[in-house]
# Entry
Amino acid sequence: MSTPDSVDVYFKAFTARAKNALALANLEARRLNHDFVGTEHLLLGLLDEDTGVAARAIKTLGVDRQAVRAEIEKLVSVGPAPIGIAELPLTPRVKKAIELADNEARIFGHKQIDAEHLLLGLTREPSGVAAMALRNLGIDPNTLQREAFKIHLALFTIVERAVRPVRASTPRKRKMRQELLSHLSAIYEEERANQGDPGIALQAAATRFGDVAQLSRELDRSVSLKERIACNLERRFGWRSPETAARFMFRLAVQLLVIIAVPVFVIAGLTVICLGMKYGLWWDRSVSIAIRPVAALWLFIPTDTFLLGLLYFKLRDALCGAVWARKSLPKAALYDVLIALVVLGSGIGFVALAEWDLSRALQSLSAYSAGAVVAAIFYAFYAGVVGPAEIADTIWASLDIGGQTQISRSS
Amino acid sequence: MDQIDGDKLRGHLEMLILAALRPGDAHGLEILRRLEERGCGLLRLKEGSLYPALYRLEAAGKVKAVWEKEPHGRRGARRRIYQLTKSGARQLDQDRGEFQEFVTVIGGILGAAI
# Structure
């Protein structure tokens, strides 16, 4: 998304708290007679905000609101005169911080940008005044993140403890996670409205929710046979935490190599036998003609699986942005081009190997190129549509929930 | 029913859910609220346990669930809205009938024992 200049356009994407923080940031900027809203004003706005998520997180790390304000005023100078224009523009750094906040929100699966995400976006933008001020005060961005998202993480952990051991397919578990998280968050908010203190509210909500081990068993019993089968297939061939993409695709490629080997050798063997019976010798040119395409398939399918699979993950992460990879459209484009090249190369290579004739293969270059382009478009589209959900699944699966009860043997 | 654990309420939970959905579609929290209002607050159900029951009903085709269109609340967590299917409505009527018979018979025996 291209970030616009003024604040108004964000309103739909922001929660009420985030909107408040931005409005307060505006006021802070005026107070310093600045004609722009920079990261430092946004930080002050977040600290001023009523429900005090940012203030509380920073206080827990041992730093006072006033200290932050003092540090910022040390780093910037007050402007010459009060500003007349109604809506102050945002600096490029603030826009960047908001983009980072948007990314974080989507990774957590939240539809709107909240104050915590903005705080995170600010700390992730290292060259801004806000980040400088926090660094000068000895606040580590990662620690601040963990503190601000403590409750989120706790809720996630409870849900994941219930869902992870369930033997169902990933899409089914995704539904369970979302639904249970939604419910748990709602009752947490209810308790919070009654109690005030987040820690106590969390306890109350967890108690109401029920024992996770018990819930896990009940969820497992509610799973249909179809899901069980899908789960077993996934366990065998799907991604297993905490594999890297490269390791996963390598494993898959090897599995395919082994699986395809069976029909390949059967076909090769039968061909040799049949031709041997027909012509009396066991090796003939026609044998190699028959076997070549099959051998080529055996070579290309696992190799392509590995290359295209790996490139797909790189493309997806660059396109959607993930915790472990920054969103980068240029990189995504690069990976997409590489995908096209691999498809093109595979097409030519396969025919060349099967026919044992490179020039014949090159004759249909335009057809393969068209195929390569279609493949690249398909991959990009797929990554864009399914990517965010896949990335969220990976984050859930990688969550450290400590000492999980296992229903079944495997991971 | 397939209940292995002998909890009294849980055995009837699916029937209660169907009854709670009769007045209209609802998401999980709302179903619980309706059950509480109608007096089930006495039996404290662990809220999470609602969902396995809903999933079983869904697998059996008694209820259908759709994701709601607008995100709810400031965190924008999506919820699924459950509705009774025709099969579910029939099941509810059947269950109601069976339960009433059950109550009549057992009640008669208990009454006569005084």
Remarks:
- Confidence is low (pLDDT under 50) at residues 1-6 of chain B.
